[in-house]
Design a protein that fits this description.
Blueprint (H helix, E strand, L loop, with lengths): L6 E6 L2 H11 L15 E7 L2 E7 L18 E6 L2 H10 L4 E3 L6 E5 L5 E6 L2
Parallel strand pairs: 1-3, 4-7
Antiparallel strand pairs: 2-3, 5-6, 6-7
Length: 123
């Protein structure tokens, strides 16, 4: 039976730019246990046993018009302990976001490759 989500994977056309977003804006640290593969990439530990994987591969959907609100697009939802700090980091990096339309303490933004992410406040 399913016991959890091990990782979510996103394609990136510019790994260096994606790393700035995931490391400098979101504060994630690269996991050096990623094995050598036939393509470049990086793994990030999000929580024990949970990761985000970036794969430097061509995106078959490049140029596709994505919805302005990430909640209306496929996305991964991550919990955060400090929503105000996340908002400050996004604003400092000039990354646009939208608040949840359901009234929950959540926001949506996109990474440099237009992958949608949702962040939900733990409190």
């Amino acid at each position: 039976m399913i016991t959890g989500i091990h990782h979510a994977t996103f394609l990136t056309s510019d790994l260096a730019l994606a790393r700035i977003f995931y490391e400098e804006v979101l504060g994630l640290q690269a996991d050096d246990r990623r094995p050598l593969m036939s393509f470049d990439g990086v793994w990030y530990d999000v929580a024990p046993g949970q990761q985000i994987h970036l794969m430097a591969l061509p995106d078959a959907e490049a140029g596709v018009q994505r919805p302005a609100h990430g909640g209306r697009d496929r996305h991964v939802a991550l919990t955060v302990t400090d929503m105000a700090q996340l908002i400050a980091r996004l604003e400092d990096a000039a990354i646009s976001y939208t608040l949840s339309r359901s009234g929950r303490r959540a926001l949506f933004c996109r990474d440099p490759d237009q992958n949608a992410l949702e962040f939900i406040s733990e409190i």
